[in-house]
Amino acid sequence: MAACHGSPVTKQRRFPTKFMFGAATSAYQIEGAWDVDGKGESIWDRMTHMSPGFIEDKSNGDIAADSYHNYKRDVQMLREMSLDTYRFSISWPRILPTGMPNDINPAGIAFYKNFINELLKYKITPMVTLYHWDLPQKLQELGGFANPLISDWFADYARIVFQNFGDRVKHFITFNEPRETCIVSNMFSSFNGSAGPEPFNKSTNIVNYLCAKHLAVANAKAYHIYDKEFRATQKGQCGITVSVDWYGAHTNSPEDKNAAELKRQGEWGIFANPIFSTDGGFPKELSDRIAKKSAQQGYTKSRLPEFTEEEKALVKGSADFLGVNHYTGFLVSATVNKLENHVPSLADDIDVGLIVPQEWPKSGADWLTLTPNSLYNILHQLKAKYNNPVFYITENGWPTTAEFNLNDDDRITYYRAALENVLDALDDGVNLKGYMAWSLMDNFEWLGGYTQRFGLYYIDFQDPARTRIPKKSAFVYKHIVNNRYLDHTYQPESMTMTIDPGH
Ligand code: PNW
Questions:
Q1: Active-site pick, 80, 395, 420, 445
Q2: Tens-digit pLDDT profile for residues 38-50
Q3: Which domain holds residue 126?
Q4: If pLDDT is split at 50, 70 and 90, which confidence band does 197 have?
Q5: Distances (CA, A) of 212 to 202, 223, 346, 382, 395
Q6: Among this protein's residues, is 177 annotated catalytic?
Q7: Does a structural domain hold residue 404?
Q8: Contact, 425 vs 432, CB < 8 A?
Q9: Ligand 1 site-directed mutation target among 180, 267, 451, most atoms within 8 Å of CB
Q10: Per the UniProt entry, what is one GO biological process (predicted)?
């Protein structure tokens, strides 16, 4: 499919009154206080301390934005921008230092309660992610996501989260981005614990597909706990967030179209299909392809594990909504960039080439360009594939480099284009309920350290106070949220933030 959709920008369309506008962050990227008040060690604490060389600037999240101590200021920033929703994550080892439910850290529970209360005081809806990559190190030592028991460990943790916070939180997200947890971890050789160097598992790419299955079952167990034990009294929703880049065919040839479809199945269908498709299970073409490759490679069965019928039924339908993290897109070709060394991996299994046209504007991160209409295109594809479930955009944003620059016009261009796509999708009947910008503030960008900045607010990470300063994009976002339409020409009169009445 080619990126062809677009609307005249002069047409003044409005975002529905109830459409949720917010910003997103995650615990490890902002909280700091890595060993404070009884918090346990996470795989990111271990990895950044043991192998700082994996991080571009050899930094870590020990202090990060110090939101553990600055959370009231964070809430104030949301109010300054008139946002009604905040998506953040709970650090599993902060409330369960060993990962297990026998040892609950009361200071961790208290921190999140105070913070959630602060949000509710100003009528900001908390949207809480349970797992945003900071696995308790103790669980990694038991195999992490390669161990099928991860689904029980996660279910126990989820029950504790629902018990403690479900009276005030009505939007839960089990996992952030299974692809990054299971697959990207290996592509970049060190990431989220399913594979990669010490202290991660040193196993082959086989672990990636095991992780995909175990994570799907873990999500399902947590979802059914919410459904059976908490929904009646708490009356909330429990969903999952998948990262969905746009993959379009490079040409109209059947080969390129097939290649693009296989790429979509490998990058997000493998995680969304078992939950959101009517048949359940992994996507068909992808499963066939991996089975074929595995046979060629001399394995006795496919490296992609099967779901039992019982697991398939448990996983199917195990989400109230589909959270979508979207950043960028690629053109896919069946013919170029074929892999030469056939090491088992998703990339080798799919065996397609990616093309990024020169004219797509580049960002401060090598994987991210402004891809025309990519957000509209993916929502359109997901709606068709999964029968239009409830959607939230749970992340979308633009990175700049580390230089101090509050005039982030490129970020503004990106957000305006994305929100124009949101309006197009709403016009098309996509069941989209809200949009969260990534990110509320500059933070620890994983392997990029502090060299890539996604924030609406700037932070100087040398400044002990971690003072937050609004960028121009914060003013532009606020103007859109307050007025419920996209004014492509708006420029803030000053760079001084105030809180509007009612916030
Ligand atoms: C997401 N990719 O990660 C995460 O959910 C955030 O924690 C992160 O800060 C944000 O996006 C920006 O990177 C991704 O390579 C990391 O395609 C990498 C990719 C996509 C998403």
A1: 395
A2: 999 999 999 899 8
A3: 20-244+365-483
A4: very low
A5: 17, 17, 12, 19, 21
A6: yes
A7: yes
A8: yes
A9: 180
A10: carbohydrate catabolic process
